[in-house]
Amino acid sequence: MSEKKPKKSMKGYYLTTFLIGLGFFTMGLMDPLYDTYIPIFLSRYIESNALIGAIMTLDNVFAIFLIPIFSAISDRTETRIGRRMPFIVTLLPLSAFAFGLIPFAALSSLALLIILIFVFNIFKQSVRGPVVALMPDMVPGEIRSEANGVINTMGGIAAIVGTIGLAQLMNVKLNLSKYGPTDNILAYPFASVLVIIAVILLFFFVKEKKGAHAEKSVEEKIPIIKSLKQIFGEKDKSAFYILLSLLFWFIGYQGVLPFVGKYSVEILKTSSGSAALAAGMVGVAYAIFAIPSGLVAHKYGRKKTIRTSLVGLIIVLVLIFAHSVIFTTEGVSQTLRMFLFWALMFVFGIFWVSVITNSFPMLWQMADYANMGIYTGLYYFFSQLASIVAPPITGGLIDLFGYGALFLFAAACMLVAFFLMSKVTRGEPEDLT
User: Fold this and answer.
1) pLDDT band (50, 70, 90) for residue 29
2) What is the three-class DSSP state of 424?
3) Burial track 52-64 (b if 16+ CB lie within 10 A, e otherwise)
4) Whole-angstrom Cα distance, residue 90 to residue 226?
5) Residues in contact with 294: Cβ distance below 8 Å, sequence separation at least 6, in sequence order
6) CA 31, CA 309: separation in Å to the nearest integer?
7) 89: closest CA among 196, 11, 12, 166?
8) Interval 296-322: pLDDT, tens
9) Distance in angstroms (rounded) separating the CA atoms of residues 107 and 174
């Protein structure tokens, strides 16, 4: 009878994982500011929420192709600085530069704004896969939930910096020669500078060639199409059901996210600088609960943790719907209205980070070194497909039924994901890849 291998622990991997998390920090910094203020920028030119939602999906059209392609290409890249790092040190700074210019484009014209959105997302979506795949390259499979918790903590800290810190700069007026005193600008260039600093630190302190799988030869290359056939041709359909589940929970999430800033300004009557605080509450929850959610999953199982969290999300979304009906009427204190909403978004963030922290490691557990990027790309293919499908639907629902419909729709999507996850049988820390 063979002895059980002792379980690995995160000891010795925390510092490395935090440093790798600088890549995810850059995404966590830009994404909430992007999701909060781009709809507001677009609303200067467009009245229809459905059309704004449709435009918000155009960048995801790039993502659905670029993330899987560049993830797979990075699997097959071999350089002196590693296989992911060449993409990170070139494309992330370009993303930062384009991001910093977006508010200035928004002042000029709708056409220029959309062009800058596209340019930014071409760079950002191309680098996202290599950034995320860097961690499973360097961390053993059985502790990836905990490591992903660390990564998500970095994303949460970035979201806090962006939505609670930098977003306040949107209230600061700049004296621009052509436009006079102008606000809704400063957070974007500041975020760009922080992204570039994070890339510099990542490059100098993370040595990709010394990762957990460095001894494995990149000669293990498997053609991309063959890899995809192997993944979807497996008898066990766990990978397929995880991908289908995440499609639905991301439809729910991505349907709500682009409109939370507008909901805050139009319904809750917050200032422009406070519009991002709802997303900021999710970021605070990320920072606090990402690591604990990985530890909980290591103890009780990833599948059980995800399904329990999906139930929590359904309950919270129904409560947010009730809040939109009860606490947005005249006579209700604005302070009470806002603080209740932020509290509910914080709880939403607790359950959401538990889903996100553990779903990626379930997929990675089914991958091997040669196709890690392909599994990462598939995750983003389905999540970005959700980003394309969801905003036009929820924008239309808002136009027809008001903002409350947004939250009920999201709750229904989480319910579908809950049932799909019941069919997943692999992906736990003890499963062999």
Assistant:
1) confident
2) coil
3) bbbbbbebbbbbb
4) 29
5) 145, 146, 147, 148, 149, 150, 357, 358, 361
6) 23
7) 196
8) 887 888 899 999 999 999 999 999 999
9) 13
Q: Write down the pLDDT at residue 418.
A: 96
pLDDT in tens, 238-266: 788 888 899 999 999 988 877 887 777 78
* CB proximity list for 293: less than 8 A, separation 6 or greater: 145, 149, 305, 309, 353, 354, 357, 358
The superfamily CATH assigns to domain 14-214+222-421 is: MFS general substrate transporter like domains (1.20.1250.20)
Question: What is the CB neighbour count within 10 angstroms for residue 377?
Answer: 30
Alpha carbon distance 433, 431 (integer Å) = 7
Residues 122-168 pLDDT 10s: 998 888 888 877 877 777 767 777 777 787 778 778 877 877 788 78
**Which of 127, 39, 317, 189 is closest to 309 using CA atoms?**
317
Dist. CA 83–CA 73, nearest whole Å: 9
Amino acid at 375: Y
